[in-house]
Specification:
By secondary structure, the protein is of the alpha+beta class. The chain contains 13 helices and 14 strands. A hairpin with a 5-residue loop joins strand 3 and strand 4. The N terminus and C terminus are likely disordered. The structure holds FE2/S2 (inorganic) cluster (FES). The site of FE2/S2 (inorganic) cluster has 8 residues, from loops. The site of FE2/S2 (inorganic) cluster (FES) has 8 residues, from loops. Keywords: 2Fe-2S, Iron, Iron-sulfur, Metal-binding.
Length: 495
């Protein structure tokens, strides 16, 4: 799957017409399903799915802007007829609709939820069950940015203003049209077959039955490639409805304090490990971080799911997507390490990232602030320089892998911002001062610049979040006295 494409330049809002420009038609050639996220000026989010029903490309020319204006009007309306947009969460219990079956029936086209098979008309959102999915009117018009380009526009959500596109990506390779993704994306990178796994991906004895059981199994899996395969398997089952319970009741298993690593892995102090210079050493260090990042995504699900019953289904969809992305990143880096003759595990690793996980284990709000809005956001700052180093050495394959990783990480910081602001709204606190207090309490040292303000802003992190801020972890300070995490009341209907 390619990473999120840059949305900054092409997202524009036409508030007078109440439509939002989403993406050029030429950019929806490779797949039939796309996931995208909108953020309002008030900081609220919408996760939506764009379905392109025809398996044939919607335009004859994939990227040639010059041919687009010559399309006859009936071609334009034909393109629009193939496009449907709906909320990504099922209105029944919130299952991810990205893997819904699409079926034609007497009344029109319906999307069938993978969890309980309720079907929803893709134009009206109606279902025989009385539930109604949120669908959006789609039009194909000239771009507001470049009038020679045809773009997909959707009717703006009504509850807020100033919506902008913050993420747009194909759902998965499963929905890729032949020929698949363009050469410069992941398909150009040779990901080797995984070596023989030490155990079955799905244990024959007591296989996990819920998402949280899978999360805990994966957290306790020390073999890195088995961790990757189990992540792919669990997310696939969750999306396709074969795993239709989150399982956050009282019998949910507990995640380990620290996910285990293979016996032969050598741990060193993070400061020592940071003195890396060669390409292989840099890639090895990044692979180590990605392995912890897979665990962090599953830990968020297993640790905070049962403890925070108001977290909606979308939280679990987002974190399964992050886990899958991190598994992909780890595999990409393993592939590059293998090409450079340095297998993963031959160099020492560190566990600095997990220290922050331990520090924030008691609060989803603290975890989101420190792991996603401090550590992952710092990745956005440093990735461009890392990519430039590999480019300077002519390692174009590593550049391709690291660019995919960087684009995905923007969406992970976006998810961190989304759920941090959600939790703040639930607790009735202002996100910016709350974030700054979280950093003071749970982070040590100054947030270092220079900051990648453009990508931080894409992810929702405005400068007032992070500028002139230092963590005081370990030091007593006045604000600690007033800093109380309010309990969240349980609600009914959580899965
Ligand atoms: S029918 Fe979609 S979650 Fe039940």
């Amino acid at each position: 799957m390619s990473g999120a494409i840059s949305s900054e330049s092409r997202a524009s809002s036409s508030r007078a017409m109440n439509f939002i420009e989403i993406v050029p038609v030429s950019k929806i050639q490779s797949h039939t399903r796309y996931l995208f996220t909108l953020r309002s000026g008030e900081g609220t989010y919408r996760s939506l799915l764009l379905f392109r029903l025809s398996t044939a490309p919607v335009a004859q020319s994939s990227d040639s802007v010059s041919t687009e204006p010559s399309w006859p009007d009936n071609d334009v309306s034909h393109i629009a007829e193939q496009l449907y947009v709906m909320e990504s969460a099922c209105p029944h219990l919130g299952a991810d609709m990205s893997h819904a079956d699409i079926e034609e029936c007497e009344t029109g086209i319906v999307a069938v939820c993978p969890w309980h098979r309720y079907d929803f008309d893709m134009r009206s959102g109606k279902s025989d069950t009385g539930l109604r999915a949120c669908v959006y009117q789609v039009e194909v018009r000239r771009s507001a940015i470049d009038t020679e380009t045809l773009s997909v526009w959707i009717k703006s959500p009504e509850e807020a203003n100033f919506w902008r596109l913050v993420e747009f990506r194909p759902v998965s390779e499963e929905f890729a049209d032949p020929p698949p993704a363009p050469k410069e994306t992941i398909s150009s990178i040779d990901i080797p077959d995984l070596i023989t796994l030490p155990e079955d991906i799905e244990p024959a004895k007591n296989p996990p039955k819920t998402l949280i059981q899978w999360a805990v199994l994966i957290l306790n899996t020390s073999h890195p490639q088995l961790k990757v395969e189990r992540t792919r398997h669990a997310v696939n089952m969750f999306r396709s409805g074969k795993l239709s319970s989150i399982g956050r009741g009282p019998s949910a298993p507990k995640p380990p304090d620290v996910p285990p690593r293979e016996d032969q892995m050598r741990f060193v102090d993070a400061n020592h490990a940071a003195k890396r210079k060669s390409r292989a050493a840099m890639l090895h260090a990044l692979a180590n971080i990605e392995q912890w990042a897979i665990d962090l995504a599953w830990d968020a699900i297993a640790r905070f799911g049962p403890a925070n019953p108001t977290l909606p289904h979308q939280f679990f969809s987002d974190f399964t997507k992050i886990a899958l992305d991190e598994a992909k990143h780890f595999s990409l880096l393993l592939s590059r390490l293998s090409a450079l003759g340095t297998p993963y595990g031959v160099l020492p690793i560190h566990a600095a990232l997990w220290q922050s996980a331990t520090e924030t284990a008691q609060s989803v709000r603290s975890r989101l602030a420190i792991v996603h809005l401090v550590h992952e956001a710092r990745g956005l700052d440093v990735n461009p320089a890392t990519i430039a180093k590999f480019a300077k050495q002519g390692d174009t394959e590593s550049v391709a892998a690291l660019t995919i990783i960087h684009n995905d990480e923007v969406t992970h910081v976006t998810a961190g911002h989304r759920w941090f602001t959600f939790v703040c709204a639930e607790q009735g606190v202002d996100p910016v001062p709350t974030f700054r207090e979280e950093v003071k309490r749970h982070f040590s040292g100054r947030l270092k610049g220079p900051f990648n303000m453009i990508d931080r802003e894409k992810a929702g992190l405005t400068r007032d979040f992070y500028e002139d801020l230092a963590g005081e972890m370990g030091k007593p300070h006045e604000s600690n006295k007033a800093f109380v995490i309010k309990p969240v009341k349980p609600t009914e209907g959580t899965v």
